[in-house]
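Incident review: delayed structure delivery

Summary: a single-chain prediction request sat in the queue longer than the usual turnaround. Root cause was a stuck worker, restarted by the on-call engineer. No data loss occurred. The affected request and its eventual output are reproduced below so the record is complete for anyone auditing the incident later.

Affected input:
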Amino acid sequence: MRYKTNDYSVPVAYGHRDVWLRGYVDEVAIGCGGDLIARHPRSYEREDVVFDPLHYLPLIEKKINALDQAAPLTGWELPPEFATLRRLMEARMLKAGRREFVQVLRLLEAFELDDVQAAVKTALRMGAIGFDAVKHLVLCQVEKRPPKLDLDVYPYLPRAEVGKTSAASYMCLISEEAR
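Output delivered after worker restart:
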C-alpha cells in the first residue's frame, strides 16, 4: 500500500483487494472493509518501504527457497533459539525442515513472541524438534497446562527400560548349518 511516497505492507491475503488507509502523525493504519489488517510506524522518508515480516510468511511458506533472500525478513531480529531450531530442523529434514520452520514462525501470527519463544526453548530442551511439538507447547503455555510430551506429569505410567544388546547375543540365531 502506498501512502505519501512510501510503501507499507499488508498481509498477502489482502493482495489485489480494495483497502483503506489512515495516516496519523506516528502510524499508518490499513484496513479492509471493517477490519484493521495492518499497523505500521509512519515513515517520513521518501520512497521508503515498511515491512511487517509476518505479512509475507504465507508466501514464503509456498516459495520456501526465498526464505534467505526475502527482503521483508531482512533485519528481523528473532531470539537466538529460533536460529538453533532452524538449524536443527534443516539438518534433520532439509527442505521440509525449512518449511516447518516457517510454520513455526507463522505461530507468531496468532501468539505473542514470548509464548512462542518459551515453546521453542522447551522443545529444544526436550529434543522435540518439529512444528507439531512447538505448536503443542505454545498452546500449553497459553492455556497454562502441562504439555503431554513430558511423561513426568504421569508418574503412574510404567517406565520403559531398553537395554543395550551385544552383537554376541545374535549368534544363537545362526543355525549350526550356516556356520
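Verification: The chain has five helices and six strands.
Action items: add queue-age alerting; document worker restart procedure.
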